[in-house]
Design a protein that fits this description.
about 170 residues, about 75% helix
Length: about 170
């Protein structure tokens, strides 16, 4: 519905509801809010300060259901891609730090060897992180922020190498 009505949705009227849902710590509300942000990301330039810190908080909050992390990652990637310059100038470093932390967590599989559901989630998380790294790289290139992105290349390559080893097993 949001995609179909995108141009007709007045963000100034619903923005505080989206922010409330992101901060609610209620799994379904948070997930839907992340989806709305992803769907309307092309029009979110002036709302980055409202939503990006909430998305970062979702990624760092260990009390939230881990499945909420995937839509939050996706929303960050969409915001980065569609609000490039504004996003990268203010939030690229913090987002890359969050991505690196998520990447490190996703490759810690040895303690979950007998937990198929957790291993499946970690695989999904690794795939989402790779997708978002690609999107953030494209945005960094489009906005002239490759140097800023380049600071994280060693960590990204370490993550990719670890992921390749896990997937090879």
């Amino acid at each position: 519905m949001v995609v179909g009505l995108g141009d007709k949705v007045d963000l100034s009227n619903i923005g505080h509801y989206i922010k409330y849902a992101l901060e609610s710590k209620e799994n379904d509300c948070t997930k839907i809010a992340c989806g709305i942000i992803s769907d309307l990301s092309e029009r979110m330039d002036q709302y980055l300060d409202d939503f990006v810190p909430c998305l970062h908080q979702i990624l760092s909050d260990e009390t939230l259901d881990r499945r909420i992390k995937l839509p939050a990652l996706h929303a960050l990637g969409e915001l980065c891609l569609n609000c490039g310059v504004q996003f990268n100038q203010k939030y690229l470093d913090k987002t890359m730090t969050m991505m690196n932390l998520a990447g490190r967590a996703s490759i810690q599989t040895t303690q979950y060897v007998n937990e198929a559901e957790t291993l499946d989630f970690l695989k999904e998380l690794r795939e989402a992180i790779i997708d978002q790294y690609i999107i953030i790289l494209m945005s960094a290139e489009d906005t002239g922020c490759l140097e800023q992105f380049g600071v994280y290349l060693e960590t990204i390559f370490d993550f990719l190498e670890s992921t390749a080893k896990i997937e090879a097993v």
